Amino acid sequence: xxxxxxxxxxxxxxxxxxxxxxxxxxxxxxxxxxxxxxxxxxxxxxxxxxxxxxxxxxxxxxxxxxxxxxxxxxxxxxxxxxxxxxxxxxxxxxxxxxxxxxxxxxxxxxxxxxxxxxxxxxxxxxxxxxxxxxxxxxxx
Length: 140
What we know:
Number of helices: 7
CATH architecture: 3-Layer(aba) Sandwich
Order of helices and strands: EEHHEHHEHHEHE
CATH superfamily: 5'-nuclease
Distance between the termini: 25 Å
CATH class: Alpha Beta
């Protein structure tokens, strides 16, 4: 698992092409889904959230997700197309408290993560993309 620890929480202009992958984007990239074809060309850097790591594990445990070829969540997170970010938890969770418009804890944490870093969120969740708007998302 590769962590990108110590990144500043302050949004910088250089982060404009950095994209945080929603859990569905990670799954689709892992599976080679056509919805993600342009994603790697759109961003200079792709990151995954620790919240997605936990969500993936939950989905596997309840039987709603099978990764290809017996891969594990750790295998997926070790994919060299993205890094696992490590935001400061106190700031991240404080930001998540303000995301009161969703009751999905994973969406709440992932949206807060993207907001904390100032990154756009790549997602296939139409409701989430509509709520955040095109300036803060890359719709898949």
